[in-house]
Write a structure and sequence with these properties.
With about 120 residues, the chain is of the alpha+beta class. The protein has helices at about 10-35, 45-60, 75-80, and strands at about 5-10, 60-65, 70-75, 90-95, 100-110. It is about 45% helix and about 20% strand. Strands 1, 2, 3, 4 and 5 form a five-stranded antiparallel beta sheet that branches. Bound molecules: zinc ion.
């Protein structure tokens, strides 16, 4: 595992993830006050849009550590969306050893996209 690029999830990271999640809920609730009555048909689209953004953000900022072989890998937004989630674990197939397991979530320290 490359320790310069990844680190184990700490309590602070969990707090941060929870904060993003609650902000997401808050935005939906606040905008519902303004939108719900007149534009109810927009709701499924808005919620789906936010969910995709949230999952895309998560896929970009987190990687996973296989407990079997120690491989660290990242997943696509779609895969992140459909695979089962724990608090700091995810049920995924490891691309190196091919085993399905609850893998540990890791924070990606520096996003390479920023350097481009
Ligand atoms: Zn593995």
């Amino acid at each position: 595992m490359n320790r310069n690029k990844y680190w184990k999830i700490t309590r602070r990271d969990l707090y941060w993830t929870a904060k993003v999640f609650f902000e997401f809920i808050a935005v939906i609730m606040i905008s519902s006050v303004f939108l719900l009555a007149s534009c109810w048909y927009l709701w499924p689209m808005i919620i789906a849009g936010f969910l995709i953004l949230l999952v895309a953000w998560h896929a970009k900022n987190f990687a996973y550590l296989c407990p079997g072989c120690g491989e660290v890998f990242e997943v696509s937004t779609l895969k992140g969306f459909i695979s089962p989630n724990g608090v700091n674990k995810k049920y995924l197939r490891c691309p190196r050893c091919g085993k399905k397991a609850w893998v540990d979530m890791l924070r990606i320290k520096e996003k390479t996209v920023l350097k481009k």
